[in-house]
Amino acid sequence: MLITEEYRKLNEELHATNDGYGRSGHKWADLVRQLIASTNANTVLDYGCGKKTLEQALGFEITNYDPAVPGCETPPPPADVVVCSDVLEHIEPDCLSSVLLHIKTCTKEIALLVVATRPAKKTLADGRNAHLIQENINWWLQELGGYFEPLQVNNMGGEFVYIGRPL
User: Fold this and answer.
1) pLDDT in tens, 81-118
2) 43 burial class (0-12, 13-18, 19+ CB within 10 angstroms)?
3) If DSSP codes are grouped into helix, strand and coil, which group holds residue 79?
4) Residues contacting residue 120 through CB under 8 Å, at least 6 positions apart
5) What structural domains does the chain harbor?
6) Is 11 helix (H, G, I), strand (E, B) or coil?
7) What is the pTM of this model?
């Protein structure tokens, strides 16, 4: 299971009521362009696309997937480059291994994963912090290492960027 129905509804509500929720994808457009060029990629998937700001910043059509965003909930086909930014820390802990496996199976060439290690500024309607998983980078590297070969890891203090190939 990738997401429970109860949690999907909480996220859908947060997307609908908080204009700032799901808007960070655009920050990674330049790095995505570099990854596209270095891999000769033809397809890009924004996994957990939120408000689709990555696609807007890139200026061309990509596949957008987010089970909490109406119109983006259809399971995506594999893509050359998969971007998953500010998503993994929002995953229900019991679903994390399923989500990581899903991302791995969706990744043909390279994955760009951006993970926050700090609490979110936003709160879910049930009172929980929006970052359900608040773990340090070493914990995350161990989790990710079961699915991806790390090519580059940049610790940015409070979040890190992980570029990897599927195992």
Assistant:
1) 999 999 999 999 999 999 999 999 999 999 999 999 99
2) middle
3) strand
4) 89, 90, 129, 130, 131
5) 5-166 (3.40.50.150)
6) helix
7) 0.97
